[in-house]
Amino acid sequence: MRAVVFADGGRVEVTDVAAPIIERPTDAIVRVTRAAICGTDLHFLHGKAPIEPGAVLGHEAVGVVEAIGAEVHGVRPGERVVVSFHIACGSCWFCRRGETSLCEEHAILGAGPFGGDLPGAQAERVRVPFAETNLLAIPDEVDDERALFVGDVLTTGVYGASLAAVMPDETAAVVGLGPVGYCTVQALFALGATTVFGVDIDPARRALAQAAGAIPVDAVRVNPQMVLARATQDRGADVVIEAVGSSTAYETSVDIVRRGGRVVVVGMYAGEVTELQLGVYWARALSVRFAGLCPTHAYWQQTMALLADGRLDPAPMVSHRLSLEEAAQGYELFDRRLATKVLLAP
Ligand SMILES: [Zn+2]
Ligand SMILES: [Zn+2]
Questions:
Q1: Domains of the chain, CATH where assigned
Q2: Which ligand is nearest to the CA of 179?
Q3: What's the average model confidence in pLDDT over 212-238?
């Protein structure tokens, strides 16, 4: 079958690889109808995370179940499904509590040795371990393209917005309006927020968030702290969701939240370091919640229902629809920030 693989020198190429087979009785094979390129995929190209040449990339996909192992009961061949970007066992102590991103057998499709060395989803077919847990059926009224986002960024937005728990009379701000920030803006409104500021340096991203109802803040031209203070009688935002994963974005988030406010950190961190003055946090009585990876499985049914009701719509994010064979071009456009979201059709 054809698949997008990591090649030497930080490139991707589309090549023939062995088609996946059922390896464990809890597996399913999904014939992929749409896959997407994610910001995390670029980490491998830039050497920020290890991966072997020849490994199939990708963790965002939607498709049709083609085969199931003997112990799979919740999904049937022929069913349209979305794949969770991270793989959980569904039965360990953490999974039983719904904290599936902390699963004892945590893995990520197409993410190299730290992801459990599973072949990725940018391919004609993908093997999904613990299929009952990691596949969600798609209702007829939701098309493949929209459903794809339930496996990753859209559900992450709903997770971030749920942790933020914004009341209708509160002022929220989202720092960073990439795919996760954009989905968070939509989810905040869907869950009852009425006033949401969106902070980003990129005009295209601000425009997209503005169309979703956010009040745009150009972090290059104005000081976000001043803007939020002016909007709240000098207090600052009640809740800030940090959706970048950089020290600068984190510091901006702490700067623009009010005394007694909440900061929810959805952006992904690895080795970043920041200096913080504990007395400032203490005196300002701040609540800071690090979200970690989204426990997709605990939030994706709610996300799918909001999508089916038309209260969420990830489609405006899609800037490019390419064939799987054009994946290298898609990665380049995405890497050069010429694409907001690239879909690949095998
Ligand atoms: Zn992703
Ligand atoms: Zn588990």
A1: 2-152+295-345 (3.90.180.10), 155-290 (3.40.50.720)
A2: 1
A3: 97
